[in-house]
Amino acid sequence: MIAVFAELLELPAQKIGYAGLKDKHATTTQYISVESKYEPLLKNFQHKNIKILEKTRHSHSIRMGDLKGNRFSINLYDVDLMDAGKIEKVARKIAKNGLPNYFGYQRFGRDEGSVAQAKDMLKGEVFIEDSKIKSFLISVYQSHYFNEWLRERIILSREKNNSEFLLLSGDVLLSKDGKLSTPKIVPTKEFAQNKVVPTGLLCGRDTFRAKYEAREIEERFDDEFLQEKGQRREALIYPSNIECKFVKKETMLTLSFSLPKGSYATVFLESIAGKNYTAKDVKQDKSKKKR
C-alpha cells in the first residue's frame, strides 16, 4: 500500500508515515500521513485493493509506534449455537482474568528457523550483513526467551495458584501511569484491581531486571551480554470491547475484540481454543480447505 501511494505522489516511501504493520491476509484499515500539499493528488485515487475511507488534517505526521491498539473482527466457521455460547463465555473470562501476552507464531518465521539463525548469528557462526535482517533476528531472539519465560510462569501459576497469574516478590510491575517498580512485598491487591501488571524481560542492555524470587526464574531466560537495548513487555494483556455475532444459516461466529499494540490476535484465539498453532499448521489447514 505504501508503495502504491509513493508512486502516485512521486515521493520516497520513507516520507509516508504509518504507525505499524497489518496482517498480510486480512481486510484492514490503516491511517497513513503525508504532507498536506499532496491532498489534491488523492482526490481521484482508484485502486482495486485500496480505498481511501476518510481524510483529515493534523499538525504532526504519524510515526512508528504511534498506536494504542488494534481492533479485530474474525469469522469462525462450522460453529453451532452451543459452541458459539462456549466461545463467548471463554473469551469474556480471558478478558477478565488476563491473556498471557505471548509473541505469536508469526514472529518466528514459517518453520521457526529464525530462532536458530539468530542464535548462530550471535555466536558468530553466521554473518548477516543486512542491518534490517540482523535487527529482526535479534528481536526474534529476545521474543523467544520472553515466550520461554512466560511459559514457565504460566506453568508455575497453574501448579500453585489455580491458573491465575502468580506474582512473585521482585517482579517488575508496570503501573497505569507507565512507571516500573520491583517491590519486595507482592502487591496482590493492586494487581487484582488491575492497577499494576507484571512484565517480562526482552533481554538486552539498559533495562530493568527483576529481583529476589522473580529473578531466580528470569535469569534463566536472560542474556546479559546482548549489546542491543532491552525492554520490558507486559506479561498479561486484557482484551476489550468483545462482541460475538452468530449467523445460524452460515454456522459462522464473528468474534470482534480490541488488543493493545504489540499483542497477537492469534494468541487470543489459541487461548480460546486451548491449543497452540505454528505457521506450518496454518499452512497445512489452508491447503486442506483448498482441496
Explain this structure to me?
The C terminus is likely disordered. Strand 10 and strand 11 form a beta hairpin. The protein folds into three domains: 67 residues, no CATH class; 77 residues, Alpha-Beta Plaits, CATH 3.30.70; 136 residues, 2-Layer Sandwich (Pseudouridine synthase), CATH 3.30.2340. By secondary structure, it is an alpha+beta fold. Helix 2 packs across helix 7 and helix 3 packs across helix 4. The strands form four sheets. A four-stranded antiparallel beta sheet has the order 6-5-7-8. Strands 3-11-10 form a three-stranded antiparallel beta sheet, covered by helices on one side. It is globular, with a radius of gyration of 22 Å.
Short characterization:
The chain is α+β, with helices and mostly antiparallel strands. The protein has eight helices and eleven strands.
Task: Average the pLDDT over all residues and give the rounded result.
Answer: 91
Order of helices and strands: HEEEHEHHEEHEHEEEEHH
Q: What integer value in Å does the Rg equal? A: 22 Å
Judged by helices, strands and strand pairing, the structural class is alpha+beta
Distance between the amino and carboxyl termini: 31 Å
Q: Strand order, main sheet: write it out.
A: 6-5-7-8
Morphology call:
globular
Label the CATH architecture of the largest domain: 2-Layer Sandwich
Return residue spans where pLDDT drops below 50 for at least 5 consecutive residues.
287-291
Share of residues in strands: 15-25%
Q: What's the CATH topology label of the largest domain?
A: Pseudouridine synthase
Largest sheet, in brief, is: 4 strands, antiparallel
In the CATH hierarchy, what is the class of the largest domain? Answer: Alpha Beta
> For the record, what is the CATH homologous superfamily label of the largest domain?
TruD, insertion domain
Helices, by number, come to: 8
Query: In total, how many beta strands?
Result: 11
The number of distinct structural domains comes to 3
Fraction in helix: 25-40%
Keywords: Isomerase, Lyase, tRNA processing
GO molecular function, one term: RNA binding
GO biological process, one term: tRNA processing
Family: Belongs to the pseudouridine synthase TruD family.
